[in-house]
Amino acid sequence: MKTSIIIDRLQDHGIKPSLQRIAIMEYLMGHYNHPTADVIFNKLYPVIPTLSKTTVYNTLKLLAYKGAISEITIDEKNVRYDAEISPHAHFRCKYCGNVFDFPVKNLSSVVAKEIDGFLITDAQLYYKGYCKKCKTKASQLY
Amino acid sequence: MKTSIIIDRLQDHGIKPSLQRIAIMEYLMGHYNHPTADVIFNKLYPVIPTLSKTTVYNTLKLLAYKGAISEITIDEKNVRYDAEISPHAHFRCKYCGNVFDFPVKNLSSVVAKEIDGFLITDAQLYYKGYCKKCKTKASQLY
DNA sequence: ATCAGATTTGTAATAAGTACAATTTTAAAA
DNA sequence: TTTTAAAATTGTACTTATTACAAATCTGAT
C-alpha cells in the first residue's frame, strides 16, 4: 500500500500524520479483519520497538473520533476497529468468534441522519449467530 | 407488575424461576432504561441482602442466552440489558451517555434470518450522536 | 430424612482500557 | 542555528467490568 494513500486518509480527516499514526492507519487499511488494539500493538511493536500501548489506544480513539475509522462494539469483551467506513453490517459468530463484513441492501434506508430532534453521527448494524463453518458444529452441541 | 407474568417470561424461555432470577427479570421488565449488571445489583442488594454480584452476571448471561432479554453492547464500557425484545434500535448520546429506544420503520427489511449460509440469531442496530437535550450543548464545544 | 443436582455465594484473578506525569519530537520564531 | 512552546509519545500505575472457581446453600424427588 502506498504511503501517500494512508497519509491522505489521515489528512482528509484533519489528523497530522506521525510515524505511529501512519503505521496504525496502514495496518488497518491492509487488514480488514477488525483487529483489537492489542492485536495491532503486537503486530506493530516488532517494527516500532518504541511503540507504547497507550499510543495505540489513544490513536485509535482519535482516528475513530475524527471519522477516519470506525469502532466496532459487537464483541462485549473488547473494541474492534475497521478502516472500511462505507455502510455495511458486521456478523459475529458465537462459536468461533470471528467477525465478518456483511453487505446490507437496504441499510441506507434505515440509517437516517436525524430522527425526532436527535442528531445521528454514526450507525452500526450487528448480527450474531453461527457462520457457515460453525453452523453444523454448533448444532451438535444441543 | 404481577409475578406470574415474570415467571411466565422465564418459563417460556426454559428458565427455572428462582428468587434471584425472578427479581432480576422483574427489575428489567419494570425498568426499560438499559441498566448495567452493576446498576441491577445495587438496586436489588437492599431487597435481597444475600445477593451476589456473580449471580447477577450469571443470571443476565443466562437470560440473554435463552433469549428472554437482549444484550446491548452500544456502550464500549459495559454491557447493558433490555427486556424489550421486539425489533427496535438503540441510540446513545455521546454527550450525556444516555441510551434511548428508537423505533425503526424498515428494520425487519434488513434483519434477515439467514444470509449466504450464515445463521442469524440476533440483530442489533445502534445509533450514536447527540440527543435533543445535548445537541446545543455539544455544538458549543467546537 | 436423605441425597444428587442445580443454584448461589464470596473471593481472588484477569484483562481491557485510562490517568497522568515525564520524555521526546516537531515546527516555527528568533 | 538555536530557542522555545505545543503536540505527540511513552511507561507506570491504576481502575473497573467481568470471570474462574470452589465452597455453601437450596430444591425436589425418592
Primary descriptors:
homodimer, 142 residues, alpha+beta, Arc Repressor Mutant, subunit A, Dna Ligase, domain 1, 2 domains, two-stranded antiparallel ribbon, 6 helices, DNA-binding
Describe this structure in words.
By secondary structure, chain A is an alpha+beta fold. The first copy, chain A, folds into two domains: 3-80, Winged helix-like DNA-binding domain superfamily/Winged helix DNA-binding domain (Arc Repressor Mutant, subunit A, Orthogonal Bundle), CATH 1.10.10; 86-139, Dna Ligase, domain 1 (2-Layer Sandwich), CATH 3.30.1490. Helices cover 37% and strands 21% of the residues of chain A. Chain A has six helices and six strands, in the order ααααββββαββα. Chain A has helices spanning 3-12, 19-30, 37-44, 53-65, 107-110, 134-139, and strands at 70-72, 80-82, 89-93, 99-102, 114-115, 118-130. Chain A has a four-stranded mixed β-sheet with strand order 4-3-6-5. In chain A, strands 1-2 form a two-stranded antiparallel ribbon. The longest helix of chain A is centred in the middle third of the chain and has 13 residues, at 53-65. Chain A is globular. The termini of chain A are far apart. The mean pLDDT of chain A is 91. The interface between A and B is large, with 37 and 37 residues. β6 of chain A pairs antiparallel with β6 (118-130) of chain B, so a sheet runs across the interface. The structure holds a DNA duplex (30 and 30 nucleotides).
